[in-house]
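Is this the right way to post structure tokens for a design question? Let me know if I should format differently. Anyway, here goes:
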């Protein structure tokens, strides 16, 4: 059965002429690393007829403890981007920063295999939704930080840097997210953060700080596009404002599009205007 996002992606690929629909070559379950006795895998979607497309690495959401790589926003492929949807150890399997180690291993693997698969090695973006957006943003702003690079995978000489970030309604500061949350949001976020960090953020302030993208932003970080709904009861919109503010303090390129009336995971984030907006941002930063 198709999910709502799957149907939207299909409509975007087949019905929207401004996205210049492309057929795609899909390669499933590519092993990019082995850790704790199991393989970590990614799915790769390559637009046919485009030589050396830019690459978007996609990180799924799910409150850090659930979700899968199976439903990425494939509409980006129809707009000329290669797309790699990556898996990572969930918080029920490994605590933070294991998730960041895994995603950075995927970026290093993808950079090492660029010649094999044909996308551009020098222009890689990362994006995600919800918990995945938090992880994507953290990967994007922490290049070269020893505590967050890890040693997962066999491509350790490759860079884990990215050149753009797409952040769909993600967390940015685990030290402030709970005071900003609604009562219902607390019922979701508190247990999720306890699984991710191994304790309440107040009990592990150093780890909560390490896991917060806002604390890692510096003058060399890549351009950022933020999407967030102003009626999100689960992920406070102030999280996006905080990351926007830190980017502006460092005079970095940042765009913040608010979905008025939007809630967490709203399907409107994946409609034609928002998908086109994100694709334009990526083209601006990464090139066509």
């Amino acid at each position: 059965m198709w999910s709502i996002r799957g149907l939207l992606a299909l409509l975007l690929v087949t019905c929207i002429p401004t996205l210049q629909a492309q057929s795609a070559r899909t390669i499933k379950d590519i092993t990019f690393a082995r850790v704790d006795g199991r393989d970590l895998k990614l799915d790769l979607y390559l637009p046919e007829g485009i030589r050396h497309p830019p690459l978007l690495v996609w990180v799924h959401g799910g409150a850090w403890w659930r979700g899968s790589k199976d439903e990425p926003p494939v509409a980006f492929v129809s707009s000329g981007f290669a797309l790699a949807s990556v898996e990572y150890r969930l918080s029920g399997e490994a605590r933070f920063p294991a998730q960041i180690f895994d995603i950075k291993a995927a970026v290093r693997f993808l950079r090492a295999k660029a010649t094999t698969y044909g996308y551009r090695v020098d222009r890689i973006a990362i994006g995600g939704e919800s918990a995945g957006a938090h992880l994507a943003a953290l990967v994007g702003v922490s290049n070269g930080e020893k505590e967050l690079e890890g040693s997962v995978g066999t491509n350790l000489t490759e860079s884990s840097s990215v050149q753009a970030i797409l952040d769909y309604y993600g967390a940015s500061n685990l030290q402030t997210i709970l005071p900003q949350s609604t009562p219902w949001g607390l019922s979701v976020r508190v247990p999720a953060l306890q699984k991710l960090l191994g304790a309440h953020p107040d009990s592990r302030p150093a780890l909560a700080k390490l896991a917060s993208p806002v604390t890692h932003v510096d003058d060399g970080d890549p351009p950022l596009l933020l999407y967030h709904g102003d009626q999100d009861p689960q992920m406070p919109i102030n999280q996006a404002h905080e990351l926007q503010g830190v980017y502006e303090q460092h005079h970095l390129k940042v765009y913040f599009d608010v979905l008025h009336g939007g809630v967490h995971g709203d399907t409107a984030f994946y409609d034609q205007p928002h998908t086109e907006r994100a694709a334009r941002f990526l083209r601006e930063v990464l090139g066509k």
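Format looks fine. Someone answered above. Worth noting: Residues 1-21 have pLDDT under 50 and may be disordered. The domain at 4-286 is CATH 3.40.50.1820 (Rossmann fold).
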